[in-house]
Design brief:
Arginase, Chain A; binds manganese (II) ion; 8 helices; about 300 residues; alpha/beta
């Protein structure tokens, strides 16, 4: 039997040796507090991806031809701490192979592991968190690896930028750096939040997207939906600018909590993932081979992926 490939792409584009992208599924839902089910997220995401058309109209590209290797899922779930460590190790092993590493959760606690891996491999890392919730608790329900603590560590040892936030506990105000937070209620009235957010970023950026950042009208299948969220095109516009102006070193997408009767959320997640790859590799396909050598090398920690000739 043939091995399953991401989005059903041909085997020639799915081999580890030649793929520029690695996708690591992390079907973990050990600490969620309200609706369970984000452990089913990766499977729903992969199924939706298999039913998605692979030509991206906007970037006029077929990004899958850069190769996307579907890694074995990280299934460690003996404890939140062990899961985080397994995610860190797995992600780091592929970063060290010079792959563009992406992860799909699972609940948001998996990002503690992804962020650790990227922070170990890249200098002056910015973590861009797009999320409805602040996730800044130092500890929750006896663990520092709870989903409510997803970016506490990042707030202490990376340049954390928070976008779309509209729910938090008062205790988190003592940790939050409001200068680097874009609250949803302020974003609606601010024409400059995109530029302002990008101005706060260092060169190397890891993006963590909690799907509950999106408005529940377009993303209902998530564990803790919050009204007043981001819409599709404003989010894509922001992401495209980040990919263009910064060296995005990897990303994760979390908290898809699939619902049998509501498949559009699965498709949003699938399309979002593919859009982000399309933005990452925009400009590399139609041009000549020179661009190959521009591909980021984690050993050149501050190298920029695309620096000129962008239009
Ligand atoms: Mn979150």
């Amino acid at each position: 039997m043939n091995k399953r490939t991401y989005a059903g792409i041909p085997e020639e584009f799915s081999k580890i040796e030649t793929s520029k992208v690695v996708l690591i599924p992390v079907p973990y839902d050990g600490t969620s507090t309200w609706q369970k089910g984000s452990d089913k997220g990766p499977e729903a995401f992969l199924q939706a991806s298999e039913n998605m058309e692979l030509y991206d109209i906007e970037t006029k590209s077929e990004v899958y031809k850069n190769g996307v290797y579907l890694a074995d899922a990280v299934t460690e779930n003996s404890s939140p701490e062990e899961m985080v460590e397994a995610v860190r190790k797995t992600a780091k092993s592929y970063i060290q192979k010079n792959k563009f590493v992406t992860l799909f959760g699972g609940e948001h606690s998996i990002s503690i592991g992804s962020i650790r891996a990227f922070n170990e491999c890249f200098n002056n890392l910015t973590v861009l968190q797009i999320d409805a919730h602040a996730d800044l608790r130092k500890e929750y329900e006896g663990s520092s690896c709870n989903h409510a603590c997803a970016v506490y560590e990042a707030s202490q040892n990376t340049n954390l930028i928070q976008v779309g936030i509209r729910s938090m506990d008062i205790i988190e105000t003592t940790i939050m750096d409001e200068e680097k937070v874009f609250f949803a209620h302020e974003m609606v009235a601010d024409d400059y939040w995109v530029e302002n957010a990008i101005d706060l970023m260092t060169e190397n950026v890891f993006i963590t997207i909690d799907l509950d950042a999106f408005d529940p009208s377009i993303m209902p299948s998530t564990g803790t939906p919050e009204p007043g969220g981001l819409l599709w095109y404003e989010t894509l516009d922001f992401l495209q600018k980040v990919f263009k102006e910064k060296n995005v070193v990897g990303f994760d997408i979390v908290e898809l909590c699939p619902n049998e009767k509501e498949k559009s959320s699965d498709f949003l997640a699938a399309k979002l993932y593919y859009k982000m790859l399309s933005y990452k590799f925009e400009n590399t396909e139609d041009d000549d081979y020179e661009n190959e050598s521009d591909y980021k090398d984690p050993n050149q920690k501050n190298s920029k992926f695309q620096d000129e000739d962008y239009d």
